[in-house]
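tool=predict chain=A
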Amino acid sequence: MPKKQNTAAQRAREAARQGAKYTQALRAGAGDPPGEGATATAGEDDRFGGHEFEYERVTDLFRCTECRVYEVVARDTDGPIKPCTGLIGYGGDTERVYLLLTENPENSHVASLAWNIRTTGIGRAPRYSWRDGKLLVESAPSVVAELVRRIEQITSTIDGRQVPAVSSVDHLTAEAGRAVIAENYAAYVAKYGESA
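tool=predict ok
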């Protein structure tokens, strides 16, 4: 017999089937900050395990966009949700390190840079990762050196010459990276207010 879902989960599933972000709707229904653009708090990490579940119309299931695990698998017991191991390229490593990239003023295309990093499969820009020309990137310790190498190769052709996307890469610990996200989130709230 399937587990009875609470009303917030039912509303989130229906919202996802209508095209909304599932984890965002679930967080909003539970009284948490919205998922789109919101920073994860310690409480959210405990309740969602760092997963970002999205609805798959083909399977009618919800799958994490990070680790690709289905929600029914992550929640297969009555205990806490299994933590997200992150991108497949992290190799199941749950440790996190961060890189603080300073954009090259000659080649400032943050969306393109974040997309290029995501396509490596070994790094991603978390929510609230960009502010004042700096982009925070998450990775795992075992692959961060390779990610730095790939980031340093990202260029654009400007005026007939190859211009690097970043001017510097600073390595940060997990704690320092989370502090940057918290600062960026506070700056966002100060400027725009809480997301509705």
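The first strand starts at residue 53 and ends at 56. Residues 33 and 80 are 20 Å apart (CA to CA).
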